[in-house]
Structures are given as structure tokens and as C-alpha cells.
Amino acid sequence: MMFPNSNKNIIKKLTRKSLKANRTRNRYVILAVILTTWLLTTVFTLGMSFIKTFDMQEIRMIGTTADVALSNPSQEQIERLKQLPYVSHVGLDTKVGQVIPTQEMGDLDISMHRYDESEWDKMRAPLLGNKVNTYPEKRNEVIVPTWILDKLNIAEPTIGMTLPLTYRSEAGESTESFILSGWYTDYSQLRSGNAGVIIVSREFAESVGAGSGDKGSVASIAFKGGSGIDQNMSRLEQDLKLHEDQNLASYSNTESQNSSKMATALGIAGIIVFIMFSGYLLIYNVLYISVATDTKFYGLLKTIGMTRKQIIKMVNGQAVRLAWIGIPIGVAAGMITALVAVPLAIEAFTLDTEVEISFHPVIYAGAALFAWLTTMAGCRKPARIAAKISPVEAAKYVRTTTKKGRHGSKLYRMALRNMFRDKKRALTVFLSLFIGLTTFLTVNTLVLSMNTDNFIASYVDNDFELVNKTVDFGYQGEQKQKLSEELAESVRQMSGITDVRKTYIDRGGSLGYTPEVFGKFVDDIVMRYGMERPTDEQLKDSGMFWSVLIGIDTKYVTELNKSLETPIDVERFEKGEIALLSASEELFNRGGSLSVKLQGDGC
Q1: Which of 105, 193, 415, 420 is most buried, by the most CB atoms less than 10 A from its CB?
Q2: By CB neighbour count within 10 A (0-12 exposed, 13-18 middle, 19+ buried), where does 114 fall?
Q3: Would you tell me how many other CB atoms lie within 10 Å of the CB of residue 15?
Q4: Mean pLDDT taken over the chain
């Protein structure tokens, strides 16, 4: 009769003794676990921080956390918005006036805005940095962005200092001294250039006739989580019944952002898979060599009665103890890297909107879990190999080869034979080196490619541009031609200039609607956004159908012809007989006739 016998303590003791007898192997396994955990922690932190920083960068450059904007909202529409179940916040942004720049201001484009409580507290203030003081209350109090103060040569602003400003409002043009009640760091100028906002009080807005009424106001709308922005915009158009002079626009290009996030996430996932596979091969290779070296030892254990399951438990136990040492060290190294190196890496390829480092516990728990799974996967096969060793095979086992050399005992040939004596082990070593080098080169290429020079070379055709600000949207003064052929020629003659191209924009022109040319285009917009289609008469007469007219340099057409099956007639294009539409080719037919009306022109 056999009695059950617990050998747990014996297995643990053998595991400890085996670890003490293989100190060199232990160092390599621990190092492999540390490297795997450290790389996983770093990649997780870098990826999550990059996505978080990119999201915050986009929002800060836009200047608001709102999703869409509704122009000229009525009070009834605002109340209706607050009751909609898919809307979380509604704020009101009112343009009060336009600052008339002095000679010292240069080409600054400064407007004066008043925000209601929801707009300021929920959508604007959370994105601003280095805020001093709260929202202005008295009539002549203002809050000014620090970059505008820098442009005004105010390096050290103080509460209560005066700012003389000349502005244009509904009440006319006026010059007044305002009191600086606060300032903040604004990031929207990174996107808009020299255009900025000075925040004024409600009392001032009412005094110049901008405190009430729909004109000049924008309702900022933030949606609740769940549905997409495009879907919610379609619902808004149906629920609010927009007027002809109203426009509903998204603050951000969510489609491009989502595709960018998806590409980033896939890249990070690919790197993580490479790191895990590389760590698996390294741990597997070290343990496999250890098992092969200790073949006789495992055979003797079989001789004295150790079962296959107990040997597997013993080998796994060694890997578990080594992982307990390596994973915490790897996580700690990853945390130090996140504090020191990750901010530097992200700052190298992001704009000046501050870096957001992600220290969420899930990152470190996930990295530790992936490192644990990698270690367990790496020891699984060696443990099974050790368990299969029989006492007879172990007694006869000799790590040598029976293949005889035909070219003598030259050292390099002996080395080659020794390398490939165990072909499986040699394959594992080479595969581990290949994956490790591939991972290194991939990460190195990604990091080195994320710099300003590569970005400019890939996405920006020109090095700088001169812009006539008087034709921009929002400019209140007289439109003037600031750029001349003489100026273009003087730039062309400068040292280092290789090419100068001119682009003309007419924002006051209009495009005549004809159903034969633009019918498919309108139908596509209606289908994509779930809108009610206007009639052809409405599109012709109400001003709903419009476009910006742009005159481009002929050199662009010449370059475009190189990639077109049917090239554009350059001579007819220069005469104005051919126009190009920036839209999908499937929605238009070549050769269609269209009419344009230029500002101040009769054709």
C-alpha cells in the first residue's frame, strides 16, 4: 500500500540549490528580464505619453475643449442645447471688438472677446498655462496672453498696469486705457500666427453694444462621450433647425486625428511584440543551454524518483524567482526613464505646448504582466525538455558531434563546427540576435526620424512665406495689396533663394451653382452628414453655395502634370480658360462649365 508523500519542500530546496549552483546563468536571465521589463515600460510610457501629449497639443492649439461651434445662436437655441441629452456643456463666445494695431504693434491681429461662465470655466481656462488672477469683472479690466504682452515689449507685467488700446466695436472707434487684471500662457497662436484674443468683462461688452443679441456670438458645444462628432453634428442640425446665416463647424479634424492615433497605436503594438519576442528568445536560449548543460543532473533526479511534473515545476520555479528579481528592477528603471528621458524624447518632436507624461498604474502593471508572460513563455519549452530526459539517455549524453572534419583541425573550422553542433540552439541564438537588432534599428529609425528637419522635408514644400494679412478672415480694416511683383523679384534675387511662387486669394468672390456641375457634390455632402438637401434655387440665390477662389503659380500645374494620365493644358490654364476644383474626382465631370464672380468684377 502506497502512502501519499508531499515533496513540495524538497522541490523548493532543490530549486534554491540549483539557483545557487548556476550564478552565471542567473545573471543572464535576470538581465534579460530587466531589459525586457525596462523596454516594455519605456515603450508603454512613451507611447501613452505621446498620444496624451498629442491630444493635449491639438486641443491647446485650438484653444477650447469644445467639439463644435454654432455661429450666431439665438437664446432659444442656447436653451435648447442645454436640454439635449448628448450635450455636456454649452458656452458663449462673443466678439466685442477689434484692436486697431499701432505702428509699435506691427501686424498683430488682436480681437476682444467676452466669455460667459461656462465658456471660460469649462472650455477655455483648463487649457491655459501660468494663469494669474481670475476673469475680469470691472468695465476696463482685461486679461492678456503673455505672448501679446511680449509683442508689446512688456517683459514683466504687473497687476493694475495700464494698457492704452484703440479698438473698433458696434459703438464705433474709440481709444481707452485698460487695466491689466491678469495674464495667461496661450497656445493658439502656434496655429494662428499673430492672431490673438484679449479677454474683456461683461460690463465692457454691454457698454459697447455686444452684451446682447445673436450677432457676433459663437456657441461652443461639448458632447458627452459615446457617439462621434460627425454623428452628433447631424443630430444638432435636425434638433436646432439652423437659419441661413448660421454655420455649424467642428473645431478639429477628428478623422485625421483618429487615423494618426491608430497608426501610432499600431506602431507601438508592433514594437512591443518585437520586444516580447526578443526577450522570449533570450530567456529561452539561456535556459535551453542551461538544461542541455545539466542533462545528467536531471537524469539523476529521474533516477531517484522525481516525476516529470516535479522537474517542470523545479525549472519554472527557478524562472519565477529570477523574474521576481528582474521585473521590479526593470519597472524601476522604466519609471526613471519616464521621468528623465521620455520628456526629452517627446519635446524633440512636439510643439511648445508642454509635455504630458502618463504615469498611470496600468502602464506599469501591464509592462510587468507582459514581462512575466514573456519569462514564463521562455522557460516553458526548456522545462519540458528537462522533463523528457530519461536516466539512460542522461548517462550516455556527451555534448559532442560524431561528424568528422575533412579539412583538418583549423581553428576557425573547429569554431564553426562547435557553433552548429547543436543546430537548434544555433538557430535560436541567430534568431534572437536578428530580432534584437531589428528592434534596435526600428526604434532608432523612429526616434531619429522624429525631428524638425525631417518633418519639414516630408510635409512642407517651402521654407517660409509672406502673407498679406489684410485679406485674412476676421480682418476689419481695408484690404490692401501688400505684396508686389517688385517685392517678389527682390526676394528672388536674395542669396540662397532657389524658387519663389505666388498664390492669390479672393475671399470676396463667389462660385455660381449649377446642378449639372455641382449636383453630385452637394448630394455627397447631404448623404455623408444626413442633412436635408436644399433645392437648386436655394443654392443659387441664398448664398449657401460658395468657395474661396485661389490663383496658383503655373509651376504647380507643371509639376502636377508629371503624375497625371491626362495632363492639363498649361497655356489655357494661364489664360483662365481652365479651373481646378479641390474635391473628389468621382463627383465631377471633366469639361464642365462653371462661372465665378470676382470681388469688384463683373465676370
Answers
A1: 105
A2: buried
A3: 19
A4: 76
Grid cell digits, residue 330: 526593470
Mean pLDDT of the region 128-157: 82
Task: Evaluate the CA torsion angle 211, 216, 222, 227 in order and state its sign.
Answer: positive
Residues paired with residue 70 on neighbouring β-strands, in sequence order: 219, 248
Sign of CA dihedral 404, 405, 410, 416: negative
Closest among 97, 125, 124 to 111, alpha carbons compared: 97
Residue closest to 226 by CA, chosen among 451, 427, 67, 22: 67
Q: Which residues are bridge partners to 95 per DSSP? A: 113
Residue with cell 442656447: 78
**432 and 279 in contact (C-beta within 8 Å)?**
no
- CA distance linking residue 193 with residue 174, whole number of Å: 26
Helix axes 295-303, 254-293, angle to 10 degrees: 70
Contact 534, 544 (CB under 8 A): yes
Question: What are 301-357's pLDDT values in tens digits?
Answer: 777 777 788 888 888 888 888 888 888 998 888 888 877 776 776 665 555 556 666
Q: What is the pLDDT of residue 1?
A: 44
For range 31-52, the mean pLDDT:
80
- Over range 128-132, report the average pLDDT: 68
Q: Which CB contacts under 8 angstroms, 24+ apart, belong to 468-473?
A: 469/107, 469/109, 469/194, 471/505, 471/507, 472/109, 472/195, 473/507
Residues 357, 343 contacting (CB under 8 angstroms): yes
